[in-house]
């Protein structure tokens, strides 16, 4: 702003100086012209006076020849171009050869001799500026008086072109000088503004970052500037990075350490084939998103220690510093017995809440003993939070449907805590939600939060409707907030995303190598078209529907038989639950049936890889594929879709995406389909396989640009910024209430 203002000022300065130059050059021209004319006048009189005696003598003798010679002599002065001698009777006595015809003695005499009506008055000199076709002239008529008797007059014609030349030179000189001055003044203004702006903005930046001791007198303005700065960043975008997230945390929340509560741990320790301990990265969208945030912010991640070698790697507090080799935060593991895991995780969370929230036609199962385990384990995690925090107003991020009761449990012990709950799965409409026998407890538990986040606005609306329907509360629809028992909870959409760039692809081979390598490993010809699907084995992911779409493609487009293969990476999940075991079997059967149907010369259209794959392996498949099909029947976001896009730095490959994912609202350049509609889905696969490269580039580039901007740092940053605003308001309210209480106490004393 300041620089812009300086530029405007510099331009105004230049314009002002130009105007000044124009006015000055006019003044200078007029003054120099006056000087020149006076000079010419004096010179004319001096010339005539100097030659007076000679003029008298020739005049008296009426020797016109000699008089003419004398006049020619006078015109030797380079500025006198012609001369004439006029008698008192107005006759021309002599004139030089080039005397202009325009001027006769008779016409000039009127200006020199006295007017006929005033015979007593004397002859006087006359001077006038005039012009000839060749340029300006100055005519002087000087009377020749002998003993006050007029003999006549001498006319001298001066050349004024030298005067015009000098005027032009003076004007150019002036313009040049003023021009240089204007440029110097403008440059000095800009440099001064830039230097002072840089110094000022550096200082401001340091103040905003808290790198210098704040001066109390700046506090009010600093707060305003910070707010404005944040608002500008929020509205104008700008890329979010781990550094920016760290700064947000530091600026808004005084660098508080964050405590995350999530069932799934980011690192699982297991025993490798040789018995040595190995680290695994679980197949979990939640981990994919949150792990980079924790790396950026540091703090504590409290999770179920589910790995077979987990206990061997922690200290006596259940702590281990992670990520391995680049430790930046603490993983606190919570231990569960088999029964507890069965009741809380498999039972209530995954047989009750999971199918309740997903429209995937699986009937939720609610058992009161599962509910009891759910309550018990929620309490255990809430207790762990209270052990891990280092203040009575910590920032706690509660993740997902495993911990609906934790927010209230934390609030009961730490009323000043800021609890942000993020629900990673959809929220059903209030009627569907109403079938849960413990619906009120779940809603009340969640309303212990300061903020509840969902991926989409429609999930927010469903949640608010459920509260409205089942609880005594006040809904503030204007601000998307719920007020219950005097406590306010914001309900906001925060669509989750990935770190950007995704660090897993840093060390991966180029796309061409991944294409060739994966095809060779799968025993496919180098030119085979490859489709890929990557999922936890879950019935909500629509993997069966995906296989059926591949079958429909090959039915309708026989030209792809032998030329197109779909590889499905399926990480085993929740295998204790019947529904998941059934899914496993059904998928194998479906793949076998379709493979049998199209099998020919070793060709099988579906390759089902039912095993955990570490992220680098998964990203190799993304890079090798021509098409990725995400066919979820219902999904909060689905980060596989975003991972595929993130993996394709070659801007090739096509994403076919279910309309029932949160991602479909953001990645609109994907081919969006209804996975239940096999005709539509198979047609989209065919379109993907024949999509021209320029179109692939265009779509992929648009999606990559979107994810780069709307990355997971932004997701976390927005929630933390909202949390900071709540904390600020609560601090102010608290201070006001304190002051009122003190006033009342004083009044009663
Ligand atoms: O998809 C919702 C989700 O909660 C993810 O956030 C997470 O990746 C997954 O489900 C949980 O899976 P799991 O039961 O294996 O932890």
Name of the top-level CATH class of the largest domain: Alpha Beta
Profile the largest sheet: 10 strands, mixed
Just name the CATH architecture of the largest domain: 3-Layer(aba) Sandwich
Helix coverage percent of residues?
A: 40-55%
Number of helices: 24
* Percent of sequence in beta strands: 15-25%
What would the average pLDDT be, to the nearest integer?
90
Integer tally of domains? 4
Bound molecules: 6-O-phosphono-beta-D-fructofuranose
Concise account of the structure shown:
By secondary structure, this protein is α/β, with parallel strands linked by helices. The protein is built from 24 helices and 23 strands.
What does this structure look like?
By secondary structure, this protein is α/β, with parallel strands linked by helices. It has 4 domains: 2-166, 2-Layer Sandwich (Beta-Lactamase); 214-254 and 711-749, no CATH class; 258-341 and 381-430 and 438-493, Glycogen Phosphorylase B (Rossmann fold), CATH 3.40.50.2000; 517-710, Glycogen Phosphorylase B (Rossmann fold). 51% of the residues lie in helices and 17% in strands. It contains 24 helices and 23 strands. α16 (511-521) packs across α19. The chain is elongated and about 150 Å long. The site of 6-O-phosphono-beta-D-fructofuranose has 12 residues, from α8.
């Amino acid at each position: 702003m300041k620089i812009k203002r300086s530029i405007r000022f510099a331009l105004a300065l230049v314009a002002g100086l130009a105007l000044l130059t124009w006015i000055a050059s006019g003044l200078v021209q007029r003054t120099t012209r006056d000087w020149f004319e006076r000079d010419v006048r004096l010179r004319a009189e001096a010339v005539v006076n100097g030659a007076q005696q000679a003029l008298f003598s020739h005049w008296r003798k009426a020797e016109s020849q000699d008089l003419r010679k004398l006049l020619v002599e006078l015109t030797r002065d380079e500025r006198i171009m012609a001369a004439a001698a006029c008698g008192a009777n107005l006759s021309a006595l002599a004139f030089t050869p080039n005397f202009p015809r325009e001027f006769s003695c008779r016409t000039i005499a009127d200006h020199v001799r006295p007017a006929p009506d005033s015979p007593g008055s004397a002859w006087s000199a006359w001077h006038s500026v005039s012009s000839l076709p060749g340029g300006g002239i100055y005519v002087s008529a000087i009377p020749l008086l002998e003993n006050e008797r007029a003999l006549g007059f001498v006319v001298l014609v001066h050349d004024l072109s030298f005067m015009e030349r000098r005027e032009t030179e003076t004007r150019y000189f002036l313009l040049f000088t003023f021009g240089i001055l204007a440029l110097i003044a403008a440059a000095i203004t800009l440099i001064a503004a830039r230097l002072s702006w840089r110094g000022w903005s550096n200082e401001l930046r340091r103040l905003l970052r808290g790198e210098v001791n704040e001066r109390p007198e700046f506090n009010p303005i600093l707060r305003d500037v910070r707010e404005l700065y944040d608002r500008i960043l929020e509205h104008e975008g700008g890329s979010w990075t781990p550094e920016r997230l760290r700064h947000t945390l530091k600026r808004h929340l005084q660098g508080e350490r964050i405590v995350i509560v999530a069932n799934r741990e980011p690192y699982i320790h297991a025993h490798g084939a040789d018995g040595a301990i190995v680290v695994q990265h679980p197949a979990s969208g939640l981990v994919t998103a949150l792990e980079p945030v924790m790396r950026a912010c540091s703090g504590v991640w409290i999770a179920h220690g589910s790995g077979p070698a987990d206990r061997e790697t922690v200290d006596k507090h259940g702590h281990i510093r992670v990520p391995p080799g680049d430790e930046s935060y603490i993983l606190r593991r919570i231990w569960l017995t088999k029964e507890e895991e069965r009741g809380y995780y498999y039972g209530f969370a995954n047989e009750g809440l999971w199918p309740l929230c997903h429209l995937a036609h699986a009937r939720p199962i609610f058992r009161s003993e599962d509910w009891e385990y759910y309550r018990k384990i929620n309490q255990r995690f809430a207790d762990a939070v209270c052990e891990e925090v280092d203040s009575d107003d910590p920032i706690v991020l509660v993740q997902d449907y495993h911990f609906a009761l934790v927010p209230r449990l934390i609030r009961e012990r730490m009323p000043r805590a800021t609890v942000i709950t993020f629900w990673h799965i959809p929220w059903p409409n209030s009627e569907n939600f109403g079938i849960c026998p413990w619906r009120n407890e779940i809603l009340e538990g969640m309303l212990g939060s300061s903020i509840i986040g969902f991926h989409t606005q429609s999930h927010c609306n469903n949640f608010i409707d459920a509260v409205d329907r089942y609880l005594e509360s006040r809904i503030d629809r204007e601000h998307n907030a719920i007020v219950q028992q005097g406590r306010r909870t914001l309900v906001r959409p925060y669509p989750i995303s990935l770190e950007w760039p995704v660090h897993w692809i840093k060390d991966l081979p180029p796309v061409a190598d991944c294409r060739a390598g994966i095809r060779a490993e799968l025993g496919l010809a180098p030119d085979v078209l490859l489709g890929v699907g990557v999922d936890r084995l879950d019935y909500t992911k629509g993997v069966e529907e995906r296989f059926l779409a591949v079958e429909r493609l090959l039915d309708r487009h026989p030209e792809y038989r032998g030329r197109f293969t779909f590889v499905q990476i399926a990480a085993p999940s929740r295998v204790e639950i019947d529904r998941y075991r059934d899914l496993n079997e059904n998928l194998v059967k479906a793949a076998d049936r379709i493979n049998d149907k199209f099998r020919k010369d070793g060709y099988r259209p579906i390759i089902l890889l039912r095993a955990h794959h570490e992220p680098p392996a998964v990203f190799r498949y993304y890079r090798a594929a021509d098409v990725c099909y995400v066919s979820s029947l219902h999904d909060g976001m689905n980060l596989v879709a975003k991972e595929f896009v993130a993996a394709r730095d070659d801007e090739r490959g096509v994403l076919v995406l279910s309309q029932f994912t949160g991602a479909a609202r953001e990645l609109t350049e994907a081919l969006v389909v209804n996975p239940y509609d096999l005709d539509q889905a198979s047609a989209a696969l065919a379109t993907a396989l024949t999509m021209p490269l320029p179109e692939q580039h265009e779509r992929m580039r648009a999606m990559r640009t979107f994810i780069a901007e709307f990355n997971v740092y932004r997701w976390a940053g927005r929630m933390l910024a909202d949390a900071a605003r709540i904390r600020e308001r609560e601090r102010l309210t608290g201070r006001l209430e304190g002051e009122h209480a003190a006033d009342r106490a004083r009044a009663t004393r």
